[in-house]
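Hi Y.,

Following your request, here is the sequence exactly as I used it, all 232 residues.
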Amino acid sequence: ANALDLFGTVKDIITKLAVNFPEGMKWNVGYDSTEFILASMAEITETLVITFLLVVLITYVFLQDWRATLVPAVAIPVSLIGTFLFLYMFGMSINTLSMFALILVIGSVVDNAICVVESCMRLMQEERLTPFDAAVKTMQQLSGALIAATLVVVAVYLPIGFYGGMVGRIYKEFSVTMCVALLISTVVALTLSPAMCAKILREPKEPKGFFKAFNRILDRTVNKYASVAGFL
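Below is the corresponding structure, written out as C-alpha cells. Let me know if you'd prefer a different format.
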C-alpha cells in the first residue's frame, strides 16, 4: 500500500471518530513511519538534482563545448520524465526505490547521447563534414551498437523484476524504472540526439587554457592505460 495515503486516511477517520470519544479520552500517534519516508524522498530529490548537475558538469569538461553538452543534458530530463509516464501506466508509484533507480540510471541515460555527440564532433573535425552529414554518418555507424549496448545493460537489471515474495514485490519497481529509463534513453539517442547535433553543433575549436592542460593530462593517462592493457 501507499504508506502516505494509508496514514492520511487513518488519521482522517480517527479525527472524525474522536468527536464521539468519552470525555477526557484523547489520541495521539505513537510512531509515524511516514516522517521517515517524507524525509527520505526530500533527500533523494536533492540527490537527483545534484547528480544531474554533476553529470552535466563532467560532460562539459570532457566535451568542452556548451552546444555539445546540451545534447546529453536534454536527454536526461526527457528520459526521466518518460519513465514517470510508464510507471503511471504500470500502476507503480514514485517511492524511495524507484527514485533511487533514477539516481543510479542518470549516469547511464547520457551514455548513448554522449556517444552520438562525440562521434559527430569527431567526424566534423577529422572529415570536415557538416553537422547534418556528421549526424547522418554517426547514426549509420552507431545505431546497432547503441541498441546492443542498451540491451546488454537491460539484461542485467531485468531479471531483478522476476524475484518472488516480498523482496520481488519491492524490487520490481526498481527493475522496471531502470529498464524503462535505459530504453527511453536509447530511443532519444536514435532520434532527438542526432537531430539536435545536426541543428546546433558547430565545428570544434582548438582548446585553450584549462581545457588544453586537461586534454594533455587525459592523453597521457589514456596512453599509459593503453600500454598497461596491451601488456596484460
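The CA atoms of residues 36 and 122 lie 49 Å apart.

Thanks again,
Q.
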